[in-house]
Structures
1.
Amino acid sequence: MLPFKLIYHPGYDLNIGAHVFPSQKFRLIAETLLKEGIAAPEDFLRPEPAGDEDILRVHTEEWVRKLKTGMLTASEVMLLEVPYSPELVEACWLAAGGTILAAQCALRDGFGCNIGGGFHHAHAAHGEGFCAIHDVAVAIRRLQADGAIAKAMVVDTDVHHGNGTAHIFRDDPAVFTLSIHQLNNYPALKPPSTVDLDLDDRVEDEEYLEILLPEVRRGLEEFRPEMVFYVGGADPYCEDQLGGLSLTKKGLLERDRGVFREARLRGIPVATTLAGGYARRVEDTVRIHVNTILAARGVTEARDAAHP
Ligand SMILES: [Zn+2]
């Protein structure tokens, strides 16, 4: 049994069929965690869809109405880059509910892991790059509205810049946004995060970790967030079809462990989400996401062992 909860719902599947976004990965990750005995069925919680009042703390009424009624314009669908369907909308509301639940669990358990979410390209008034609803922003606003936290930090390690996150929180001193990404990649326009770590093409494990971890440490020390939202993209992987970095699976595991350890050392809870992953072999994407859960477990156990 895990010392924290995994949040998953079969409805996370975006039902987009053959597409570079492997939306069956959510189910495959959950199945792998069970099959390999990493998690037991009782470790899983099934989220409710987020309420519209939760979504509307981040998104405009017009965008929410368009999504719910299927009235997106052709150019809005093009920007979203996934075909519109009512199932897609359901999946978005569920993913946001899942990240809210993961954050609530993290407050109690130190970690809470959504086996979904991380839709960091979604903006308040439109969707982009497979992301229609910004689940992480929705969860931050919900926890703030509940008075559970005031300050949050987003650590986004997806290979693509977290443009939606940066834009949504651009004028908000209560949310620290950090994005480490390949500079020469989507999205073309990168509104500034609190800290942007722009990487050259083909950066490898060692250099990546040397750039990321000191900045995470500094952010935690200086900003002192009450929660970290981790956007754990699998797409900095060397075999990724949409990424141009050269991290190995081992390097990605060290990335997760490094970030989690820094938060844990300071007693800061971490809510994790998945984000992108487009490896040539979907098994690799699944493995990298599964390793994020193993990293969380490892950090929890190390801490408990050190402080019995
Ligand atoms: Zn990505």
2.
Amino acid sequence: MMKKSILAVLVLLIYSCGKQTKSNDQKQEIITNQEIQVNSNDVTSKPSQESGIINYSENSHVALKSINIGDCQWTEGFWADKFNVAKNVMVPYMGEVLCGDVGHALNNFKIAAGEKEGDHKGMKWHDGDFYKFMEAKAYVYAQTKDQKLLDELDEYIRIIGKAQEEDGYLQTQIQLEPKVNRYQNRRYHEMYNTGHLLTSACIHHRVTGKTNFLNIAVKHADYLYEIFMPEDENYGRFGFNQTQIMGLVELYRTVGDKKYLKLAEKFINNRGKYKVEETPSTKGYPIGDMVQEFIPLRKSKEAVGHAVLALYYYAGAADVYAETGEKALIDALDGLWENVTQKKMYVTGALGQAHYGASTNRQMIEEGFIDEYMMPNMTAYNETCANICNSMFSKRMLDIHGESKYADIMELVVYNSGLSGISLEGKDYYYANPLRVIDGSRDYSKMNTEFPIRQPYLNCFCCPPNLVRTICKLSGWAYSKSENGITVNLYGGNTLSTTLLDGSKIELIQKTDYPWEGEVNISIAKCKEEAFDIKLRIPDWTQGAQIFINGKDAKVDVSAGNFAVINRNWSEGDILTLNMPMDVTFIEGHTRIEEVRNQVALKRGPIVYCLESPDLPKNTKIVDVYLKSNASIKPEFKPDFLEGVTTLDTEVLLRKNSNEKSMYSKVEKPVFESYKAQLVPYYSWSNRGQAEMSVWLPIIWE
Ligand SMILES: [Zn+2]
């Protein structure tokens, strides 16, 4: 036993020393910018996590490292089903839309490439949305090795390469608009498109080994470096929707050229450095807190402004920290993550309380954060992208700190406010994800992104490909590699075939009906002889979870909100069982959240429930429904309902004489009628026609 432990330490030491001898500068010499030589056969089999969604292979400031894309495959159950919908419907349908005349995204590149006549159509960030779609396709290819997907990607890349200017610039919204100059105004979203280009190209390279897309990204990033690295106040305030920070760090991780990391860091340093005043380059959008430029990031204590902008920015800063290890940066990010998740987040994991509003510094904001604990339900904006960004930021914080509370947020988002952005069929989308919808209460004609029912196409198309790429890549988030073992971040039927950080092979088979049932069985199909850790995330909502090894109590600390660490000499055939009781729980909000006073939300496992009008008598208003505290709540799995969900069946009370006449009126004791209703998972709402819906319901305690 002792010998094996010493051997394991030695192996780890040798491994670590080997890693340290290859400095980034040396790596730069090996890989020059324009001639990226990669052996395509090696890419997906590298033991050093270079093909993860995030490549931490050279990095020492994270506790957890990525498995390679494709190492984990969903086999059966919830995520396997969702991945199959993504593979068979979401991605092909999105391809039809974006490559055809409705979406017009590929057309924009074709016109810029001189292969088609016409004008730019779509939002200024449409190029970025197309890159996200390409990223989704690359993830599907990683799982299926379907040559057709690769060929289609190659054709897009050929067109995009032809559209790219000689000097590396690539933004069809500017190239096809003669009246606007490059980097003239930040609202043209050049940074956003850039970021998605860089990220998508890195992912494409990791899963295919090809460099055709990566070369375009490098050429573009080199141009960006020339423009934005010199000190310049105008360009210094240019960062807007800053996905380029994540993209630049990932490009640095891919090709090893430190200048991309320096530029990423500069975009963070620039924020809050200059006087906040309107200039020609900021005109047309709110300034200051809206774009997180009022207070420098390292001094920020409160999440402000546009929620998507904020969370992409924080996620990018987490990437920079992961490479630099700068304490001031992680201290600020720790505070911001707490502020977001403890004071400004909905019970569904959604972010962005208001479409229009003001920050606490009294600056105008759109689609974002307002005061702490101010959580309107009906008018909540909660853009699907913001919710996804919450999980992206939390994933990076999980990697950095290795604490399960971050994975709890990832899980909360993906099961609830993430999935709610797309229909079960996979073709209709929501941009905003409110927690309550009441017929006739909102004038949708005044809104550009909120709709009473899901839409097959959104003019502002940022959310659909963002969500679809997340569903496609989720298996890459399911596990991480720890110092001497593996962590299980997300549960779902899957197989894992990867290597631990010491290079030893490990294969796991996970079987579970999660999230509908709380039993998870993980069998060890292959592993090293020496002892190593398997860390199971014990979700923060669990009570009384238990762990067994081959049917016997594992006798380890199993506390909610932590990773349970099981260190032992594992053998092939061992079965690790996690049992999480799936009780239905009433959730209440903090006393400062006025909007949910005397109401509760129902939750079972990670799933947040809602009540929807198809499950009520005709003409019942959702605001007239009350829960009874002492009514039994029966979870029932219905395989043929809403693609297979567990509903919560319970007796509710319908109020008969509610006030709809005057703003305020004298109230008598209400008259109630009893009704047997079912609550459905929040993500599955609005799949049965236009409906009213509420997550929070008033409760009568008896
Ligand atoms: Zn969006």
